[in-house]
Design a protein that fits this description.
This protein is an all-alpha fold. The chain has eight helices and two strands. Strands 1-2 form a two-stranded antiparallel ribbon. β1 and β2 form a beta hairpin. The longest helix is centred in the C-terminal third of the chain and has 52 residues. The radius of gyration is 25 Å and the shape is elongated.
């Protein structure tokens, strides 16, 4: 397995250095509406330089957390470890290996990638984000149709990882908006309560003067 992994990593480096490869990849991402600059959905770096598993953003509901964890574990299995063991980073998942099989392999991974997108649909992601995720899946499928080299392209593209990162970014935005709304209502509730107390205080002062 280590020999296969080394071979794929070596070939992927050569492909990335092919003149025009980066330009073509960037051009596609402009069409798809998404750059390659997505965050790592698996790990995050702490201020002290250490890393830990990236969790769902604070403020997510239990249902959202469960769905996000399922998406990340599925992406990990597709792109990083074919057995799905989160503690084992093989650097090689199911996608490149399955895609080696002509025609059938790319089609199998296409359906598996679509399942991950279906999981994301449970989070009620916006249409624009859905379009980005399905564009990533379509692009990956078209690449993997190329015999042998398609598997290398799939390894470089890491379709599921990129889509999991998009989902995390979306949940971060949603959680931030919820916190803002919560603070907004808390602020006005506090003002309302304060005005209520002041009104009672003035009423009590007026009643005392009448006496």
């Amino acid at each position: 397995m280590s020999g296969v992994l080394s071979g794929i990593q070596g070939l992927s480096s050569q492909i990335e250095n092919i003149p025009g490869f980066s330009y073509a990849a960037d051009a596609w991402n402009e069409i798809a509406g998404e750059k390659f600059q997505t965050k790592d959905p698996y790990f995050e770096e702490l201020p002290d330089g250490s890393t830990r598993r990236r969790k769902a953003p604070d403020g997510c509901t239990p249902s959202e957390i469960a769905t996000y964890n399922l998406i990340v574990s599925t992406a990990w299995k597709h792109d990083r470890c074919l057995y799905g063991c989160y503690w084992a980073d093989w650097g090689l998942g199911q996608a490149p290996l399955v895609s080696i099989v002509p025609v059938i392999g790319p089609w199998i991974m296409y359906t598996l990638h679509l399942r991950l997108n279906t999981m994301a649909d449970q989070l009620h992601v916006p249409v624009k984000l859905q379009a980005k995720m399905y564009a990533n899946v379509t692009f990956d499928f078209l690449m993997t149709l190329i015999p042998v080299l398609g598997a290398i392209f799939s390894y470089i593209n890491a379709c599921s990882t990129r889509n999991a990162a998009l989902v995390h970014s979306y949940l971060t935005k949603v959680a931030t908006q919820r916190k803002a709304v919560s603070l907004y209502f808390s602020f006005f509730a506090s003002l309302f309560y304060l005005s209520y107390l002041l009104s009672n205080y003035r009423h009590s002062l007026g009643a005392g003067q009448l006496c």
